[in-house]
Structure formats: structure tokens, C-alpha cells
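agent> fetching stored inputs for the NDP docking request
agent> found them:
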Amino acid sequence: MKLQNRLAFITGGGRSIGRAIALAFAREGANIAVAARTREQVDQVVGEVRNQFNVDAIAVECDVRNSESVRDAFAVAREKFGRGPDIVVNNAGIARTSLFVNTDEEFWVDHLDTNLGGTFRCTHAALPEMIERGWGRIINIASIAGKTGAPYVSAYAASKHGVLGLTRSLALEVAMQGITVNAICPGYVDTEMTSRGVENIVEKTGRSADDALKMLERMSPQNRLVTPEEVAALAVLLASEDGRGINGQAINVDGGTVVS
Ligand code: NDP
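agent> prediction call returned; pasting C-alpha cells
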């Protein structure tokens, strides 16, 4: 097993990509702290982890926009496991669309504060102990929107470009301390976030849901959505000892949508 005796703290772990990462890490022997705002969802994922794998897991309520909430969530995990996490997956995120002229400050701040601010807060909460221990993994779930622009997503894209800047800079700061910092940049993934995107296209354009979904699928040269499990498989590699040479990278899982 690749993550035996490791402790992973996964934000946005109550569904979709975060859930898939929690299950994939547990399959590799890691103990898991699952954090998000919706109590029932984190509880459910912890139940699945405990039922399927011989590891320990805890559900913590956490709003990554709020420093105190993040501090408390890490404290709860520390109390349970007697130590801070070896691996942090900054996956909690929101994505809504808006023309820039209609993007008000609340919308802007919500995206920046969740996607980028949350990554900052959770990394900050975990890093000192990783440095002390001389081992750590920070895995940021960014997006191909962190590398390219597109209409209607200026706030989301700005937040994800920010995540890549943080990833690359911090990776260089901690490179000599046994810690790696990387980002995963998925294309459209088959999750609730994408379903909400489909609903939005239907509402704004009058297309059928099937047509809207096909349009998103066609954005990939593979003409399909990525699965959460594909994102999780890369997260396992980055979290493992095998991945120790991969640092400061932003790796696309997008079927070739962005080729650079
Ligand atoms: P989902 O909407 O299905 O899940 C998002 C998760 O983040 C939920 O668990 C949600 O829980 C949590 N979350 C949202 N806001 C907060 C907050 N303030 N504090 C704590 N947790 C929060 O999205 P996906 O699984 O699809 O997305 C996961 C990540 O992957 C995001 O960062 C997203 O940007 C990125 N991504 C997704 C793509 C896609 O096509 N789906 C493509 C590229 C990147 P709750 O609401 O209960 O707090």
C-alpha cells in the first residue's frame, strides 16, 4: 500500500472529486479527515471509508473561507489522531458563471476566498508540522481554468490561476524539506459541479440538457468527461513516495484539452 500510516486532510471531501480522493487514499492505507460544510455528506463519506477499508476516518465541519473554522477543523483532526496531517488536499471549491460586467464584489470575493483563500488557510494550518517532520504533501485541485481564460469565468479562472502561483512558489520554498506542492488541473469532471454547469447552460441558452452535456464533452479531444477516480489516481501518485520527485507542477487531467 502506497499511503500506509499517512494522515490525509481532504477539503471538500463530502462528494464528487473529494470523495473519490478520500476513498482512493483509504484504499492505499491512509487515515482520513474529511472536511466540508455539509455535515451529512462528510459523515457519509467517512462511513464509506470505514466500511470499505481498514483505516480510521473523521468527519469535520469546515468552511475554508473562515480562518477560525479552518483552525478548529485542524484542531479536531489533531485531537483525534494525535498529530497533524502528512497530506493536505485543497479540493474545496466553487464555480459559478457570470459576465464580467455582472460580476459583483460578493461573487468575486466568494470565488477568491473559497478557491484561493481556502488553499492558503489549510496549507498554512498544516505546513509548520510538515516542516518539523521533514515530510509532507500539498495537493491543490486547481483546474485547466488556472491555465487558460474563457468567457463568463473571470472570477473562477482568476482564483485558479492564483492557486497555480501559490503552488509553484511554495514548492520552491519547501523543496529541501521533504515536502512537495503540486496542483492537479482537471478538465470537465463528471460531478455535481458540472451538472450545475449543464443546468446553467440550459437555463441561459435554451439548449437541451443532453446538448449542453455533449458540448462540454466535446471540449475534450477524447469527447468525454473526466471521472473523479481519474483525478484521485493522480492524487495518490502525488501523495506517495513514488511521487517525491514531482514538485511545483500543475498536471492536466483533461484528455488533451490544453496542450502546452
Ligand atoms: P462539487 O461541487 O461536487 O464539490 C465541491 C466540494 O467543495 C463539496 O464537498 C463542497 O461541500 C466543498 N466546498 C465548497 N465550498 C466550501 C467551503 N467554503 N468550505 C468547505 N468546503 C467547501 O465540486 P467538484 O468535486 O466537481 O470540484 C472539486 C474541486 O475540483 C473544486 O476545487 C473545483 O474547482 C475543481 N474542479 C472541478 C472540475 C469539474 O469539472 N467538476 C474541473 C476542474 C476543477 P460543501 O458545499 O458541503 O461545503
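agent> quick read of the result: DSSP finds eight helices and seven strands in the chain.
agent> awaiting further instructions
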